[in-house]
Design goal:
CATH superfamily of the largest domain: Naphthalene 1,2-dioxygenase Alpha Subunit, Chain A, domain 1
Shape: elongated
CATH topology of the largest domain: Naphthalene 1,2-dioxygenase Alpha Subunit, Chain A, domain 1
Strand content: 25-35%
Structural class: alpha+beta
Radius of gyration: 23 Å
Largest sheet: 8 strands, antiparallel
Order of helices and strands: EEEEEEEEEEEEHHHEEHEEEEHH
Number of helices: 6
CATH class of the largest domain: Alpha Beta
Length: 346
């Protein structure tokens, strides 16, 4: 089950051009392309006549022509031509999905089009700030349900075992976690005081010696995450700490788009508060982050198999508190949405 009245990432903006392409979002096949004005158009990828995917047809100006019998659809999904001499059937239309471009991503709304407000798209605090550098990688295909990746991004403890050469340090095994509920998600966080920097961050922070480190893991409904890492010289951090002029901050943005019940497309990039024009640093960070995410992918694909084929019940631990709260609330939101849809159909 998925929450439909929400914005999901459909693609990086450079992935969509003036050619027909099929994507899958929430188990629905969608035909996407850019019209002559450069706008992203997203239509149900099935001609209503014999259900040939429209992405197997032709783009004629701004309109899509079905490759089977030539039914032609405008950008709103309305059929504007059909073969024969009779009238075009009134139900010869396909669903059109609202889209919006932001942060170099194409966002798609899968629910009631009347509720699609671009102002509700995830807000990124330092986007476009010239003092902050950016690094990003290609979208990743994950062989797991999107909620397993949401679990992963509400789980600071897993880095101790999955990312031993990058994000891990001894304190990530034992320091207590705090869980906070917000209006639009869950935050799991902790400060680790006077610890050695983790291997990945040791290469990029601008100071020597021990640090105070914040792990801020936040996932917002339905499947968008902000992972904020703060490293500041030991003695300058903590919830009430003044921090330091050499404090390093990295915001990792993570957008999980469910494609099917057991597959996810994962978009990610990082913003950092140092050396914004340093292309070598951006390349190094991208490569290292990609390597760490490949470690996540390997684990989660096996977790999907294990959870699907389990012979005995799985258990939960105290460290799973944030994940469980997130899942319960999202499940309730989906139930509420479905109840409204049923009422409207009566």
């Amino acid at each position: 089950m998925f929450l439909k009245n929400a914005w999901y990432v459909a693609a990086w903006d450079h992935e969509i051009d003036a050619t027909l392409r099929q994507i899958t979002v929430l188990s629905e096949k969608i035909c996407v392309y850019r019209n002559t004005a450069g706008e992203v158009i997203a239509l149900e990828d099935a001609c209503p006549h014999r259900k040939l995917p429209l992405s197997k047809g032709r783009l004629k100006g701004d309109q899509v022509e079905c490759g089977y019998h030539g039914l032609t659809f405008d950008c709103a999904g309305k059929c504007v031509w059909a073969p024969g001499t009779g009238r075009i059937p009134s139900n010869a239309n396909v669903q059109a999905y609202p889209c919006h471009e932001k942060y170099g991503l194409v966002w798609i709304w899968m629910g009631n089009p009347a509720l699609a407000d671009p102002n509700e798209i995830f807000e990124i605090e330092h986007w476009g700030d010239p003092a902050w550098g950016v690094n990003r990688g290609a979208a990743m295909e994950l062989a797991c349900n999107f909620l397993l990746m949401c679990d992963n991004l509400l789980d600071p403890t897993h880095v101790s075992w999955v990312h031993q050469t990058s994000f891990a340090q001894d304190a990530t095994k034992t320091t207590p976690l705090r869980v906070s509920k917000t209006d639009d998600g869950i935050i799991v966080h902790r400060w680790m005081m006077n610890v050695e920097p983790a291997p990945f961050y040791k290469k990029v922070i601008g100071f020597k010696g021990n640090c105070d480190r914040l792990q801020h893991y936040e996932v917002r409904y339905p499947s968008h995450a902000l992972i904020r890492a703060i490293f500041t010289p030991a003695g300058t951090g903590g919830p009430d700490g003044p921090l330091h002029e050499d404090t390093f901050i990295m915001d990792s943005l993570n957008f999980m788009t469910p494609t099917t019940e057991s597959e996810t497309r994962y978009y990610w990039f990082q913003l950092r508060n140092i050396r914004p024009e340093d292309e070598a640093l951006s390349a190094m960070m991208t490569a290292d982050v990609q390597k760490a995410f490949e470690e996540d992918r390997a684990v989660l694909s096996q977790v999907q198999i294990g959870m699907t084929n389990k012979r005995t019940p799985h258990i939960d631990l105290p460290i799973d508190g944030g994940q469980l709260r997130f899942r319960r609330r999202l499940e309730a939101m989906i139930a509420e949405e479905q109840a409204v849809d049923l009422k409207m159909q009566e």
